[in-house]
Amino acid sequence: MAFNIGLLGLGTVGIGTAEILLNPEGRHPLIQDIKIAQVGVKSLEKKRTIDLPTDIITTDLDAIVTNPDVDIIVELIGGLEPARSLILKAIANGKHIVTANKAVMARFGPEIYAAANQAKVYVLLEAAVGGGIPIVEPLKQSLGANRFTNIIGIVNGTTNYILTQMTNHGADFAQVLKEAQTLGYAEADPTADVGGLDAADKISILASLAFGGKINREDVYCEGITKITSSDISYAEKLGFVIKLLAIAHKVEKTEPEKLELRVHPTFVPKSHPLASINGVNNAILVEGQPLGQVMFYGPGAGSGPTASAVVADIMNIVGVLHSNKKAEILDPLLSCSPQNYCQISPIEDVYSRFYARFLCADVPGVIGHLGMAFGQYDVSLESVVQIGFQGEFAEIVVVTHQVREGNFREAIAEILSLNAIKEIPSIIRVL
Fold this sequence. Notes:
By secondary structure, this protein is an alpha/beta fold. It has helices at about 10-20, 60-65, 85-90, 100-120, 135-140, 155-170, 175-185, 190-195, 195-210, 230-240, 305-325, 365-375, 405-415, and strands at about 5-10, 35-40, 55-60, 70-75, 95-100, 125, 145-155, 220, 240-250, 260-270, 280-290, 295-300, 345, 350-360, 380-390, 395-400, 405, 420-430. Strands 7, 8, 9, 10, 11, 12, 13, 14, 15, 16, 17 and 18 form a 12-stranded mixed β-sheet that branches. The protein has a 6-stranded parallel β-sheet with strand order 3-2-1-4-5-6, with helices on both faces. It is elongated, with a radius of gyration of 24 Å.
């Protein structure tokens, strides 16, 4: 029994997907039952590295999502529109969906899932998070018996590459970003990556799957790596840490109604932590639950081959179900998604964390005492206070706190900035 797919987008991942489907030898037998029926592209004139029959390639994407002969739409065009509209139109026409589009699923997932459940079709998105790393299906199936408490991930290869290079070579952010763009690891406009937006999309998706609720993407606190300096990298090293951009979803204990912490930000990670050794463009996602404990998923987080691998795996999942039930009267609950209510997200001010802060101060007696008193007024307990040296005439002091409420820490910082002896606070970074 053959199943026809409509492939929207023939970029890097689209070509990788087509190459797998056109070469089924040595792969799972189900791939032989999958046929590329139509391919939607922006331009017919563009030269491509794959040989497909010209009569199946079209710029009319609407015709593909409404084609009665197409069973599964594979959306790989990215962005919010027209991707969202095409996905919804395909669902309305009874098509199953496979997508790698984290942006559209993070923002419009509830709308898309509601339409899919009503139409009795599947929407699968393994490739949207972690590239070739299997994480979506394990959260829905293999680990489904657990009560999840934490998901902590390095889910953006561009920022991880930049921070790795800064760590290994003592380089500044701007220099490494330019190198990453030259190598193709960073886009010409890198805002979504270096600003943390891409990672925020991904943790929204993972949190929805793990905690069984809808996520308002705008509730995810997001901070990028653009302010990280070589000095911060150096101090992290001296204190026994490395800096990583982490995406964190944490279930807050004993809250009514139940609340989640959702945040993306640069973090001092202890060198002993499993995520500290994840370097280059690789991704890793640490999942914690009961009774499982901890498990970490690691591998290539982007690229043609890894992402296409995840796309084809989703197509195979749908084809496997359709083999036994061509007209899905009841959706398989282990493949479908039906989040009910929106999760309550804690404001960042209520999140508890440790902090690293670097101060430039006038070299006058008692300045460290003034810092300690200001922190103490707002119940911020200090783990360590170290005077590193001097920048010109100003003393450089590094502080690491114990676990504190962020709102209290921010109030203490505002108080400290009003002190005459404080010139500036160049860096504030959370500590895992």
